[in-house]
Amino acid sequence: MSSYTIILFSSIIMYIILALSWNMFSAPTGYISLATAAFFGAGIYTTAFLGELLPLPLLMLAGGIISCMLAVIVGAVTLRLRGVYFTIFTFGLVELLRSLVLWAEIKFTHVRGRFVVSADHMTVFWCMAVLLILLIAAIVLIRRSRLGKSLEAIGESEDAAAHIGVNTTAVKVAMFAISAFAVGAAGAAMATRWSYVDPGIAFNSMYSFMPVLMAIFGGTRSTVGPIAGAIVFAYLEETLITKFPSLYMIIFGLIMVGAILFLPNGIIGLIKPPVMKLIAKLPKRRVRQ
Amino acid sequence: MTTFLNILIGGLIMGGIYAIISMGLSMQYGVARILNVSHGEFIMVGAFLTLTLSKAGVNPLLSLALTAPPLFLIGFLLHRTAYKRLTTVTGGGGAFEGNAMLISFGIMFVIQNIALMIWGSSPQGYQFLVQSVKIGGSVFALNRIVVMVIAVAVSIGFYLFLSRSRIGKSIRAAAQDPVAAALMGVKINRVMALCFAIGALLAGLAGVLLSMINQINTTMGMSYTVIAIIVVVLGGLGSIPGSLMGGFILGLVGSAVGYFEPSLQLVAYYLIILVLLLVRPKGLLGR
Amino acid sequence: MSGKIILEGKDLVKSFGGRHAVDHVDFHLNDGEILGLIGPNGAGKTTLFNLISGALTIDSGLITLFGQKISGKKPYTICRMGIARTFQAAKNFPGMSVYENLLISAQFGQKNVGASAAKTITDEIIEFTALESFIGKNIKDMPLAGQKRLEVARALATKPKILLIDEVMAGLNPSEVDEAIGLVRKINDSGITVIMIEHVMKAIMSVCGRIMVLHHGQNLAEGTPEEVSSNAGVIEVYLGG
């Protein structure tokens, strides 16, 4: 494979990971999170700080753990908030972290950004592929577990769930943290893509929006949906964004509006029955009794 | 004294503008249940229309009247098309609110990038009333004083319009209890579209005012959206008096923090809201 | 029937924006009884249920279960300690089948309930509440009486010692009310202590051993059905004095 292909594949995998992570928390619970960019940025900064000390897999682990801890703190505070309050908060978090990190860098290190170690494209690709496999395995396992069932109950009715003995706060925070782990790990690996990062690059709210769009466009009710959405948009982004950045963003916005208004079950919901049969063999939502 | 006056005037300018955009957002969320993230883009469009008009020789003060109708119309049409369809798709409720916000994100990208294609990405500005005036021994640019007066007047005037006029009363009725308001003969869908449009109009006015005192650029929208959201949460989602008060509070705090440590302004805003959400989740004057 | 006190509330206060919804209320529940909770709309009955079940936190006062303080605990803890409740406007999991609704309640209602134990409980509750014909159905396809029964069944699946029933008879026809009364008796006979809020007087008078009347968030009267129905204050409130 040419190095361009490897880079393209790595970034497709990255978006699949982000979209699946978003979907595993937000789809069952109905809490729309825009914190993905915060966790991704935390991963990037982990590598920016520790890049020279640790090999890539350990950097990913460290990035995952740091994002995870951030998610636990943020989740414990904000997951008591319902509906749009939660979304606002997660969105603001990205802005807050960007401003805070920028302020801290200028104040204490007197630089705006920092250089990041580079890694071999193939290594990054394989690390991301392994992370994706682990993530899909986790999604399948969680869906069948008590955690998965309680998440689903929360999405259906949070009050009813609380009154039949589901510790709703703990469940939400746990799932939020798990999804943040994958995002942080992905951020740590992808950080090597940039030779230089500053808070504006690392905490870019597009990394919050892209996964939402990808999952909604693909269909949030299955695991295949976000994957399909991520592939489509990662490819579109790669081919369009450098040549026609504004046009790409206009298309992006229009598809986002269109998908919500006209594709309630995503493109996966549109695919004809024979294909659906094939898809049914892949991991998907537990069959209802 | 100079420090104090600087903070006060800066605070009243920002407070008035924040109050205007926040009341606009509050109309959109309080009545139409749309937390409109593209709000800041309407501010940006208002600012750039003023810039374009001023290059054609139109006085920016006149732009206040000229930019209002088209932005009102765009807001109205947006609601009658996209958001009305969303109501039928989701059947209202929590699913509507979440998706409405996502749609507004999509609209944000569209407006912002169309603007980028038209006006480019570099900061721009024009000269307006740059002569200085002396107040209490300190020197201020006349444009800041004019903007301060207009911003304060518009924000308080709009609040009075809502609380006194007939249209304002039916809007408030619709915000408090849509079902009852519908029974009382308020055309609820029309009122929602009207509120969304008024929100767009107020954003446009704020944009015109901002362009008189600041450099503007096509990516400025989001930071104002964030501020409007913060104020609206601060004042209680959907509470108009809360937005008015919250706007001035945030403007004054922001002006004070910004005077000493400009890079921490947004951090200060965010901390205010963090503490508030923990202590009083319904906002200052939330229902 | 009157055993020892198992649930007790002392001097409970809850206000919303300056209005006292529950205003210095005392109550107690004896082991094994059915306590009726009545009063005009807005008297604070459902608020009291919300305080007991942890849906709302009390402003002041103390609630104890078996002598242990439960006020301030979260709903899921209180559920696991043995208090289950129904909601006036049914709160269930609409996207799940009737069977799944009960299964999930059985799974989470008590600690350490495994998958097979949960199934056993679910089957047992389905039989107990006669929901067999609805097992695989969507909730929205059920008749109102069935939905109300499911609401009770969901609470029972958590294996409570105390059941709080909030108006499960509203909107039912007379024969359905009789069935519901039968179910409440059956629940009580199986050893579960019950507090019920109800506007259907016939039900209250026939099943409750003791009745408590709330008015404007305060205790108005308390006693056997006969005592309460002859209480001058109660008559005034109900018949419009």
Structure description:
The complex is a heterotrimer of chains A (289), B (287) and C (241). With 289 residues, chain A is mainly α. Chain A has one domain (3-205). Chain A has helices at 3-29, 36-50, 56-78, 84-109, 121-144, 146-156, 158-163, 168-190, 199-202, 206-218, 224-240, 245-262, 273-280; strands spanning 114-115, 196-197. In chain A, strands 1-2 form a two-stranded antiparallel ribbon. In chain A, helix 1 crosses helix 6. The longest helix of chain A is centred in the first third of the chain and has 27 residues, at 3-29. With 287 residues, chain B is mostly helical. Chain B has one domain. In chain B, 77% of the residues lie in helices and 3% in strands. Chain B has 11 helices and 2 strands; from the N terminus they run ααααββααααααα. Chain B has helices spanning 2-30, 39-55, 60-90, 94-119, 142-164, 166-176, 178-183, 188-213, 221-235, 240-260, 265-279; strands at 132-135, 138-141. Chain B has a two-stranded antiparallel ribbon. In chain B, a hairpin with a 2-residue loop joins strand 1 (132-135) and strand 2 (138-141). In chain B, helix 1 (2-30) packs parallel to helix 5 (142-164), helix 1 (2-30) packs antiparallel against helix 10 and helix 5 runs antiparallel to helix 8. The radius of gyration of chain B is 19 Å and the shape is globular. In chain C, helix 3 (98-109) crosses helix 4 and helix 3 packs parallel to helix 5 (144-156). Helices cover 37% and strands 26% of the residues of chain C. By secondary structure, chain C is of the alpha/beta class. The mean pLDDT of chain C is 88. In chain C, the strands form 2 sheets. A 6-stranded mixed beta sheet of chain C has the order 6-7-8-3-9-10, with helices on both faces. In chain C, strands 2-1-4-5 form a 4-stranded antiparallel beta sheet, covered by helices on one side. The two termini of chain C are 35 Å apart. The chains are: A mainly alpha (289), B mainly alpha (287), C alpha/beta (241). Chains in contact: A-B, A-C.
